[in-house]
Amino acid sequence: MKILKELSDAKLVIVDLEVRLGEKLRSAPTLCAKYKGKIIPLNTAHDGRPILMKEENSIEN
After folding, report:
1. Chain-centre distance of CA 60, in angstroms?
2. Average pLDDT over the chain, rounded to whole?
3. How far apart are CA 57 and CA 42, in angstroms?
4. Are strands 24-35 and 11-21 parallel, antiparallel or unpaired?
5. Phi, psi dihedral angles at 23 (to 5 degrees)
6. pLDDT given for residue 56 in this prediction
7. Residues 33, 46: Cα–Cα separation, whole Å
8. What is the three-class DSSP state of 56?
9. How far is CA 58 from the centre of its chain?
10. CA distance 27 to 19
11. Across the strands, what pairs with 20?
């Protein structure tokens, strides 16, 4: 594994993320990256597993 470059325009934020799990609506503090004006979760909302920081995974702000 090696670092290709540091993303200077990205920053870490904690958001109160709301998700629907079946019939219930839940929210929890979630670690995200703010990059190019988009919020990208860095872990899954339901069990906290890490996910890749991809713009396809972004949430409209």
Report:
1. 11
2. 86
3. 9
4. antiparallel
5. -90, -10
6. 81
7. 18
8. helix
9. 7
10. 6
11. 25
d(CA 24, CA 41): 20
DSSP-derived letter for residue 51 is -
Cross-strand pairs, 15: 30
Running DSSP on this structure, what letter comes out for residue 59?
B
pLDDT average, residue stretch 14-40: 89
**Residue 55 exposure: Cα atoms within 13 Å on the Cβ side:** 5
**How much is the average pLDDT of 25-47?**
85
Q: How far apart are alpha carbons 33 and 59 in whole angstroms?
A: 11
What tokens were used for 42?
Answer: 């860095």
Average pLDDT over residues 40-58: 79
